């Protein structure tokens, strides 16, 4: 069987390695060769999926679990919404420029790939290198300026702000924006912390937690900080039989972190200013009037515009594959320049795709989280579940329906490996 699957396996393992190395691969492709990372990887994934179907052995069908089926239906609906309901012209380019389609391809590949400990050690060590490099780069961006190793095109669209408010994206700007940063870094952070904990490397684990929390803090994106704090949920789930250990981390980590902020501020990193200007949003009158204001606006606006198209949705007029770059008049009127969209993911989901598309996506999210949680109860590794939970939490404050992000896909790969390790009792992986 191993020889039979060798061709699609080798090719798709190569694709997964490229996704793991995404920040570096994207820099080469976009920064040096001026070609888009996402489109190139999507083309490779189409080939990978074709190989899976071509080499599928009779009696051993291609695996399509429930959550993949729901995401397949959701993906198809995005195309129906875009090109039938909105009556836009379809182009072949949209098959590779849609991150939702890329997400579907990645799910099919991950479900049907065969992986071993040696390969997973390569992915883990590669992820560890990326973690370290990402942490060093974001520190240097805070010290030297936001433009350090940042994609110039990103700076034109998202750059600006003083040292306490400028959003830092570390090494992820050649892939995308802050979403790629948060959903690329945090899942890797959570997975590495869990592996170190399982190896009983407590001091090293504590160091990684502090570096990870400092990273999400320096991004200055509240949703990334919230995702990063899910590491405490991981610590709780892995120490339920020894809560004294969890309480130790719960007390020790904040004390060391706050002390580090004070120390770094003394050396000119403006860390206290970040707390005041970004976390507490003092200039806007506090979090409830600043950040929360756009979310309250989203709720109010949703109630006024959703019922115009409750079943099929309005369509992704602005940000879709053939998006115009402008919201429809009614939504734009109610947003009144205070926000670029309905800034709550689940509300935006139902506004854009209606009850039909919204339920398909929610069914996908519920089934994949249940799948990861049930696997975690079997293997004892809760990292992939907690990492993917961050995607669900993120959509409370931002809008993203694509899981074509480095960290999320790696979380699924690690979950698959842990199940294989549990079934076959293979060797453990090491950082």
Automatic annotation (TrEMBL):
It is a multi-pass membrane protein. InterPro entries: O-antigen_ligase-rel_domated, WaaL-like. It comes from Aureibaculum flavum. Keywords: Ligase, Membrane, Transmembrane, Transmembrane helix. It holds the Pfam family Wzy_C. GO terms for molecular function: ligase activity. The chain crosses the membrane at residues 12-33, 39-56, 68-86, 92-110, 122-144, 171-193, 205-237, 249-269, 344-369, 381-414. This is O-antigen ligase family protein. Residues 209-362 form the O-antigen ligase-related domain. It is found in: Membrane.
């Amino acid at each position: 069987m191993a020889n039979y699957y060798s061709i699609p396996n080798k090719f798709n393992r190569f694709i997964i390695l490229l996704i793991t190395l995404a920040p570096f691969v994207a820099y080469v492709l976009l920064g040096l060769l001026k070609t888009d990372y996402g489109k190139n990887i999507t083309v490779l994934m189409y080939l990978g999926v074709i190989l899976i179907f071509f080499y599928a052995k009779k009696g051993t069908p291609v695996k399509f679990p429930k959550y993949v089926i729901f995401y397949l239906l959701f993906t198809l609906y995005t195309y129906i919404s875009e090109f039938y309901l909105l009556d836009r012209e379809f182009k072949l380019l949209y098959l590779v420029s849609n991150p939702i389609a890329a997400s579907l391809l990645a799910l099919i590949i991950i479900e049907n790939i065969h992986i071993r400990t040696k390969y997973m050690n390569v992915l883990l060590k590669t992820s560890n290198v990326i973690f370290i490099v990402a942490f060093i780069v974001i520190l240097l961006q805070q010290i030297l300026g936001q433009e350090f190793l940042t994609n110039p095109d990103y700076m034109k669209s998202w750059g600006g702000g003083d040292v306490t408010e400028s959003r830092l994206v570390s090494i992820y700007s050649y892939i995308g924006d802050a979403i790629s940063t948060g959903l690329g870094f945090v899942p890797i952070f959570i997975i590495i912390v869990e592996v170190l904990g399982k190896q009983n490397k407590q001091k090293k684990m504590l160091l990684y937690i502090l570096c990870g929390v400092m990273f999400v803090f320096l991004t200055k994106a509240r949703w990334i900080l919230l995702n990063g704090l899910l590491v405490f949920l991981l610590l709780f789930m892995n120490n339920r039989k020894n809560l004294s250990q969890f309480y130790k981390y719960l007390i020790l980590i904040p004390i060391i972190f706050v002390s580090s902020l004070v120390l770094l501020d003394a050396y000119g990193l403006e860390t206290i200013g970040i707390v005041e200007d970004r976390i507490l949003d003092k200039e806007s009158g506090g979090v409830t009037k600043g950040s929360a204001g756009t979310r309250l606006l989203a709720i109010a606006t949703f109630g006024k515009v959703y019922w115009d198209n409750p079943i099929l949705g309005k369509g992704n007029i602005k940000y879709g594959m053939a998006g115009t770059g402008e919201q429809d008049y009614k939504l734009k009127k109610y947003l009144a320049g205070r926000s670029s969209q309905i800034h709550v993911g689940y509300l935006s989901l139902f506004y854009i795709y209606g009850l039909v598309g919204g339920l398909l996506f929610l069914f996908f999210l519920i089934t994949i989280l249940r799948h990861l949680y049930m696997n975690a109860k079997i293997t004892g590794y809760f990292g992939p579940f907690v990492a993917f939970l961050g995607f669900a939490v993120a959509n409370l404050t931002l809008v993203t329906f694509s899981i074509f992000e480095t960290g999320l896909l790696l979380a699924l790969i690690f979950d698959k490996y842990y199940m294989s390790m549990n079934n076959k009792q293979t060797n453990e992986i090491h950082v």
